[in-house]
Amino acid sequence: MPSSTRHLVLVGGGHTHALVLLALGKNPLPGSRLTLVSDVESAPYSGMLPGHVAGLYEAAEMHIDLPRLCRYAGADFVSAHVSGYDSGTGILQREGGDALDLRPDFISFNVGSSPQLDAVAGTRRWAIPSKPVPELLAGWTRVREAAARMAPGGEPLRIVVVGGGAGGVELTLAMQSQLPGTTRFDLVHGGDHLLPGHNPRVQRLVEDLLAARGITTRLGRRVVEVTGEETRLDDGSSLESDFVFWVTQPAPPRWLRHSGLALNEKGFLRVGPTLECVGRSGIFAAGDVASIEDVPLPKSGVYAVRMAAPLEANLRAAWLGNPLVAYRPQRHILSLIGTADGRAVVSRPWLPTLHSRIAWRWKDRIDRRFMRQFVEADRSVQTD
Ligand SMILES: Cc1cc2nc3c(=O)[nH]c(=O)nc-3n(C[C@H](O)[C@H](O)[C@H](O)COP(=O)(O)OP(=O)(O)OC[C@H]3O[C@@H](n4cnc5c(N)ncnc54)[C@H](O)[C@@H]3O)c2cc1C
User: What's the confidence (pLDDT) of residue 311?
Assistant: First the structure.
């Protein structure tokens, strides 16, 4: 039997760990001490993020209250931004340099990803990153305030969004739905079509939709510099910009480089099919930060959610000394892309393209059901 002193530490309250905590609240690990380390108390749910920007969901509806979830799960909540981990000693460091006194026996990382800001001059100073989400939402608040200050009939506000994946497209449409007429939007994307990885019919539909909404799409262009007034592109042209949103390829946290854990070529944690870090027993990772060996998956909240059941099963198996089980992700998942007009696009390689109100209602129901689990857990703690 496991000794009562063993300690499971979850780092980052992303989608996967939120669901693991929910599962551990329902079915606790025998004799465990459980801790969540998170740099936020309210964890945003990505599925509702564009809908929140589009004014469809209140902030509280799309955030998970992590301290309350921890209470449900019987876990300690430690508020800290982890800035280092030594896999040899097991020591976690918080920003500022001091070590967290946690001594984990098992540890799991679900710290997400954020767009790379240092590759292009001026982005760290001027661009609003799509992650961490609190920074994105603070930037969006500044945009709305600037729009509210604009004189009627004056020059429009100029917004540039960089990155034409699903996140960039949804964010652009969501912002545009809230600022029609008063704002000029440019969406810059390095590829020949928006939404890489989606089928060409969906790409065309979305490109046409953006054009119909007055959003200019600049395909095959890369940003080479951002300044306080303009966004310079690699063809020598530049776009006047009051605000620049940076929604480019996700990158992993830099501090993992010094962890001693195996990383892939981009710096994400290499994990096996059991979500255990390559060559390290008792150390796990899931969600965007994890890269499963030989299974290239897009960085998406859907996969972060789907990794929760196998992660919880394997944390439990590791805890009990049982064999771990392999997670076999679906290669193609159904995507529902909200278009902030009461509709959503259904995207899956072999399905006919559908852009409809029914699709939005479907997406809305899935997302609300996801969040309801946490509300119900919270209620059960309050009524105990
Ligand atoms: C604009 C936008 C819209 C998107 N829309 C969708 C969508 O509709 N559907 C979809 O499937 N995906 C969407 N995505 C992608 C999705 O956001 C990510 O794939 C998903 O959030 C990854 O989940 P995760 O659990 O790995 O990490 P996250 O959800 O990013 O959570 C990581 C958590 O760890 C915390 N953390 C990070 N670093 C530290 C640290 N050092 N110390 C302590 N805590 C830390 C963070 O604060 C955060 O709470 C969107 C992305 C963007 C940018």
Answer: 98
Q: Whose CA is nearest to atom 19 of ligand 1?
A: 300
Task: Give me the pLDDT at residue 308, please.
Answer: 98
Enumerate domains of the chain plus CATH numbers.
7-113+252-331+366-383 (3.50.50.60), 123-248 (3.50.50.60)
Q: Is the pLDDT of residue 2 over 60?
A: no
**Which residues, judged by CB distance below 6 Å to any ligand atom, belong to the binding site of ligand 1?**
12-16, 37-40, 43, 46-47, 49-50, 81-82, 110-112, 130-132, 167, 170-171, 247, 253, 287-289, 299-302, 304
Is-cis flag, bond preceding 296, omega within 30? Answer: no
Ramachandran area for residue 97 (φ above 0: left; ψ -120 to 50: alpha; else beta): left
267-318 pLDDT per residue, tens: 999 999 999 999 999 999 999 999 999 998 999 999 999 999 999 999 999 9
Are 164 and 191 spatial neighbours (Cβ–Cβ below 8 Å)? yes
Block residue for tokens 């917004």: 159
Q: Collect all residues with Cβ–Cβ distance below 8 Å to 178 and sequence separation of at least 6.
A: 53, 54, 55, 144
pLDDT at 366 over 60: yes
Residue 110: both structure tokens together:
């679900």
Q: Which among 3, 355, 32 has a CA at the least distance from the CA of 209?
A: 355
What beta strand segments (E) does 190-268 contain?
216-219, 223-226, 230-233, 238-240, 243-246, 250-251
